[in-house]
Design brief:
Length: 168
């Protein structure tokens, strides 16, 4: 399988890329750094906010992938809320549009359990109310909504994982 991993230089991205390569996958890492800090078969420097996302496969040895694993995220806090919303939501939508254009069938998105806010009951289920405590968490929830929208409107197989601690 050929897999594009956004945020490949991050703590989780590094481990995901290593795991996928151990499984025999061809991994294309994508990040904002000019050089990869992670073992990948190919690496692309690209800001997901830019329209360069649409043309990323023009710079690779391959013309598409079997799946996108979207781990990249702008995690800044005050006073960067506007940029966080723009980067996270626009980047997600650009990747969904890339998936649609290139007929990439699977989209895996990393979210964050804190989108629920303070837990109201245990165990936490899918029905738990959503109360994002920060703008960053609100954008993670919006990414979940965009993934679900892409699923029911375009047939893109999506999944969003809410993990407890998205940073190392």
């Amino acid at each position: 399988m050929k897999i594009l991993v956004t945020g490949s230089n991050g703590f989780i991205g590094k481990h995901v890329c290593n795991y996928l390569r151990e499984q025999g996958c061809y991994v294309v890492g994508l990040g904002k750094n000019t050089r990869s800090k992670t073992e990948c078969d190919e690496y692309l420097c690209c800001d997901l906010f830019s329209d360069k996302v649409t043309h990323i496969f023009d710079e690779t040895k391959i013309d598409t992938v079997d799946a996108i694993v979207h781990l990249a995220s702008d995690m800044r806090h005050e006073p960067y809320e506007v940029e966080v919303v723009a980067n996270n939501c626009t980047g997600m939508q650009r990747l969904i549009e890339l998936s649609k254009a290139k007929k990439i069938p699977v989209f895996i998105q990393l979210s964050s359990l804190p989108v629920i806010g303070t837990p109201k009951h245990h165990p936490i289920t899918e029905e738990h109310p959503i109360h994002p405590p920060t703008v960053y968490h609100a954008t993670k929830y919006m990414q979940e909504i965009l993934a679900e929208y892409a699923n029911y409107t375009h047939g893109l197989r999506t999944v969003s994982f809410r993990i407890c601690s998205p940073v190392g």
